[in-house]
Design brief:
The two termini are about 50 Å apart. Helix 3 packs across helix 9 and helix 5 packs across helix 6. A hairpin with a 2-residue loop joins strand 1 and strand 2. About 45% of the residues are buried. The protein has two domains: about 325 residues, Fumarase C, Chain A, domain 2 (Up-down Bundle), CATH 1.20.200; about 80 residues, Ribonucleotide Reductase Protein R1, domain 1 (Orthogonal Bundle). It is mostly helical.
Length: about 450
């Protein structure tokens, strides 16, 4: 017994969300049949084939009439699945109308059009989950606009930021990636044997706008058989989305570490447990996002490499796109579905954030101490020396500065300079700006 990738052993991690069903074998078959039915309808509108033929073809384009496994078996020797599908489709149309099936088309026309349909359909749940992630980030940014936490650069404490600013950064990146994905033009494909549609006696170009409208795809200026820009742009946009999801998931998993414990993923029975350690609350959502997006860059690279194609039809690079594109959509869809659950149920511990600000005993306020002393090279040298002494002696920066030569700040002035919550710069303004734009 075999399982598809949407219901197999690892599907819970890699096939979560609505995109998986759209890129399944059944999804591809339905899209190919929709392309054939749409082509017949467009040609009938122009009087290129009889209306009765378009009706018969549409009736025969029922996915339930076809055996995916059999089509797949026959696709190997044929070179692509459209050839056996067209043969099977013709068998289901009355003999007198069979010659109108697949009229003027080549296999790549149907396969490419199906790919664009599959992508459009898979992007619906992906974009919906991205929008939900953005909404969750906006809520987190608004709720924690002024909640101070340690900023971290190169995995070390840097200067204070706010959790609202961090969430606003997530929101900004998500919005940018989402706009790029939603703005893609995914075109229909129809060019015939070599891009001229010669068998339609100079009327082939008239089919394109009608076919595009019927299938709700973009209309290309001309056939794009070996111009793989539409597929490459889609792959790159999915790569950017996946990278954005991975960045957010990485932040979450680091903030959820036991030693940090500033956020926690949502809890549910059996979620994030360990087979050995009953106490564990693993960040399974962030982990699953990262497992999905880890595989995406290689797939994007495969699509980009496949842009180098020969003349009017490629032998190999085009065929390599089929499963690659489906994998990109499936993995990105799974990752964003996981991240949506994480962000919508994220627990934020602002008390822990404040506590962690004190882990270095004031050292993360060293930059501000230099500014309070006038910002001169001499002030920098004095604070550098005080920081070194605080580290070696295990004291606070405040204590080290109070006894440091050349530091003439009063204790109250020093306390004001070393208060993390009082020195958050423009963090709140930046949060407001992104929230205003998102709204």
């Amino acid at each position: 017994m075999t399982s598809s990738r949407s219901d197999g052993l690892f599907s819970g991690t890699f096939s979560r969300g609505g995109a998986a069903a759209e890129v399944s074998d059944a999804g591809w078959l339905a899209a190919m049949l929709d392309a054939e039915a749409g082509l017949a309808a467009a040609q009938a509108e122009l009087g290129l084939i009889p209306a009765a033929a378009a009706e018969a073809i549409a009736k025969a384009c029922d996915p339930g009439l076809y055996d995916v496994a059999e089509l797949g078996h026959r696709a190997g020797p044929a070179g692509n699945p459209v050839i056996p599908l067209v043969a099977a489709l013709r068998e289901r149309v009355e003999p007198g109308l069979r010659r109108f099936v697949h009229s003027g088309a080549t296999s790549q026309d149907i396969n490419d059009t199906a790919a664009m349909l599959v992508a459009c359909r898979a992007l619906v749940p992906v974009l919906a989950d991205l929008a939900a992630c953005a909404e969750a980030c906006a809520r987190l940014a608004a709720e924690h606009r002024d909640a101070p936490m340690a900023g971290r650069t190169v995995l070390q404490h840097a200067v204070p930021i706010t959790f609202g600013l961090k969430a606003a950064g997530w929101l900004s990146a998500l919005d940018r990636a989402r706009r790029r994905l939603a703005g893609l033009d995914l075109p229909v494909q129809y060019g015939g044997a070599a891009g001229t549609l010669s068998v339609l006696d100079g009327r082939g170009h008239e089919v394109l706008p009608r076919l595009a409208a019927d299938l709700e795809l973009a209309e290309p200026v001309l056939p794009w058989h070996t111009d793989r820009t539409p597929v490459a742009e889609l792959a790159c946009a999915l790569g950017v989305v996946s990278g954005t999801l991975g960045k957010i998931a990485t932040d979450v998993k680091l903030l959820a570490q036991t030693e940090v414990a500033e956020v926690a993923e949502p809890q549910a029975p059996g979620r994030g447990g360990s087979s050995a350690m009953p106490h564990k609350r693993n960040p399974v959502g962030a982990m699953s996002v990262l497992a999905c997006v880890q595989r995406v860059p290689g797939l994007v690279a495969s699509v980009l490499a496949g842009m180098v194609q020969e003349h009017e039809r490629s032998a190999g690079p085009w065929q390599a796109e089929w499963e690659t594109l489906g994998e990109l959509l499936r993995l990105t869809g799974s990752a964003v579905s996981w991240l949506r659950e994480v962000l919508e149920g994220l627990t934020v511990d602002t008390d822990r954030m404040r506590s962690n600000l004190g882990l270095t005993r004031g050292l993360l306020m060293a930059e501000r101490a230099v500014a309070a002393l006038g910002g001169s090279p001499a002030a920098r040298e004095a604070v550098d020396a005080a920081c070194a002494r605080a580290v070696s002696d295990g004291t606070s920066l405040r204590e080290a500065l109070l006894t440091a030569p050349g530091v003439d700040l009063e204790p109250a002035e020093l306390d004001a300079a070393l208060d993390p919550a009082a020195h958050l710069g423009s963090a709140g303004v930046f949060v407001d700006r992104i929230l205003g734009r998102a709204g």
